[in-house]
What does this fold into?
Amino acid sequence: PIIVIDQISKAYLRSQLAPGEMWAPWDWLMPYARIIHVTNTGAAFGIFQGLGDVFRILAIIVAGAILWYFPQVPKAERLLRIALSMQFAGAVGNLIDRFRQGFVTDFISIGTFPVWNVADASITVGVGVLLLGMWLQERREKKAAQEAQESVENSDTPAENGEVL
It folds into this structure.
């Protein structure tokens, strides 16, 4: 669904606004949030402009790596599977633009933050979910190690001659 939402939102934007054209439902909102049609030959949020071919190759590599790795991720690793799915969808959404148009269509503008799109948001949230999953896994491992250590300490019982086994 993310790829479909990304592509439909970009197609609708291109049909409604010319490149550089801006829209907000109320004038007072314009400084804070607006829709603007931007063509982006760089990476997410407009960084590294002009490196479209590099990002096309990188997106293919990332998408391929995720396709290769995803089946190996246990179903119990839900956060990792969600993170990879979101990153894959975002990479493919922008890759479709790069192949179809030679650039990515960005349109969501909030404050002074660079303009972005649904695919960029998917990649960013996917990275956030991945980091959250890594942090939670680290906490689980530390807790398990602590419980194992406490179990070892509690199992030290004196032998008949007073020595620790």
In short: The helical segments are 2-16, 52-69, 78-101, 118-155. DSSP finds four helices and three strands in the chain. The chain has one domain: 2-22+33-153.
